Amino acid sequence: LASRDFHPENTVISIGDVKIGGGELVVMGGPCAVESPEQIDEIARLVKAAGGQVLRGGAFKPRTGPYSFQGVGVEGLVMMAEAGKKHGLLTITEVMTPEYVDVCAEYADILQVGTRNMQNFDLLRKLGTCNRPVLLKRGFSATYDEFLNAAEYILAGGNPNVMLCERGIRTFETYTRNTLDLSAIPVLQNLSHLPVISDPSHGTGRRELVEPMTKASVAAGADGLIIEMHTDPDNSMTGDGVQSLFPDQFAALLQDLEKLAPLV
Ligand code: PEP
Ligand code: MN
């Protein structure tokens, strides 16, 4: 079902007025984690003002260590839904377990599967029965074939609205947090009809690399981007402040993108 051989036309995912995979670039921006109503409201305002279409933010965070901040939970879903509605943005949030799919689907427009859960097959099966589009992140050590098979689980369950997200893979290089695999963009578009989104924030782990790798992703043909932005990255509640753009950097980057590709 994920293969272009059996489905030659591109899948276009329509949510409200936003079309993903239809030739216009979609930008999803926001913090790694939802922290407070004021934080997410202010960031939503800035994402909208910059020309973004989707507000990102994690209410449930898949942290590497069990003692790190794990997210604010269901309250965060409510805060983000309110901010999205108020500022006219769609919302995307990560869901980590099958039990939380229904509540996340109630509050968010798009559900994200994180890199660590790409092969959480129970979660993928549950998302196959859900009526929300899914952004599936590539496992940080998954091959393209494994990635497409993970998408296949969601499609096979009856949900046709899956986008693939390249978010960097693990290589021998330690300067960057991950190595953003730019080749994944054209490869996945050749092998599959599903939209391909690039995540230069987790793909590099370094703020100064987000702008060039965003532009490189657009040049490589990405259908959209998911970018971390925070009003006070140095004091953010996850470690991802170091890769989060400041609001003015985010706005300037989107202005540059308008020159490369039309925004929705
Ligand atoms: C995130 O988007 O904040 C996140 C945890 O991403 P990943 O699953 O790619 O690490
Ligand atoms: Mn993050």
TrEMBL record:
Protein name: 3-deoxy-7-phosphoheptulonate synthase
Alphabetical keyword list: Transferase
Domain DAHP synthetase I/KDSA: 12-257
Any one GO biological process: aromatic amino acid family biosynthetic process
Source organism, top-level taxon: Bacteria
The EC number(s) this enzyme carries: 2.5.1.54
Residues of the full protein shown: 71 to 334 of 345
Membrane-spanning ranges: none
Source species of the chain: Fontibacillus solani
Any one GO molecular-function label of the UniProt entry: 3-deoxy-7-phosphoheptulonate synthase activity
